[in-house]
Design a protein that fits this description.
The chain is of the alpha/beta class and 204 residues long. It contains eight helices and eight strands. The chain folds into two domains: 6-17 and 75-202, Rossmann fold, CATH 3.40.50.1000; 19-71. The protein has helices spanning 19-33, 37-49, 54-61, 80-87, 103-109, 122-125, 132-142, 156-166; strands at 6-9, 16-17, 75-76, 92-97, 118-121, 149-153, 169-173, 192-194. Strand 6 (149-153), helix 8 and strand 7 (169-173) form a beta-alpha-beta unit. The protein starts with 5 loop residues before the first strand and ends in a 10-residue tail after the last strand.
Length: 204
Amino acid sequence: MEDLKWLFFDMGSTLIDESKVYEDIFRKIAETAKVSYDQVCQKALEYYQQNKKGDIEVAKLFGVERPKWNPGLEVLYNDTKRVLQILSERYRIGIIANQMLGSEERLVNFGIREYLDLIVASAEEGVQKPDKRIFEIALERAGCTADQAMMIGDRIDNDIVPAKELGFKTAWIKQGPGQCWHISGEREIPDHEVHNLSELLMIL
């Protein structure tokens, strides 16, 4: 890790706990489709375990429109602030995330903007992961090369694969639906696996 200068984080299910948002979506699907909440959750889990987007697929399965995402239900993980504070003393910290407009304002409201040196979000850039261009934009603005950077995210398909192909070091944080992903080949294997942000402190 001697050459490591920048840590890039995803936002959802990485720094931000989205579990209440998913609960809201599944409850609304259940109510609209007139099926049980547990049935919706079980079917969604099965899709996630097949490396599919369970919330989207389960809405299709029950023939209803996927409810809108409610960002007001998002909260930080308990260790987000502490870990960012510690890591920001050792590394430059950036964001590479697929997010709606207003990411910076939301990060300010969460009280973690002060630990971040760079924010690259899809809505503002007009390109989203897994497109490698969003990673290249981040590297260019950071003034670093891929081998000096690590991508930390919950999604193998969006975070690990494209970053690894560009030469980033990678860490898969097994939180949220992304932890259900079944790795199917060499290109999907991250350099590190952790179950929460605090575990990053053991490798960084």
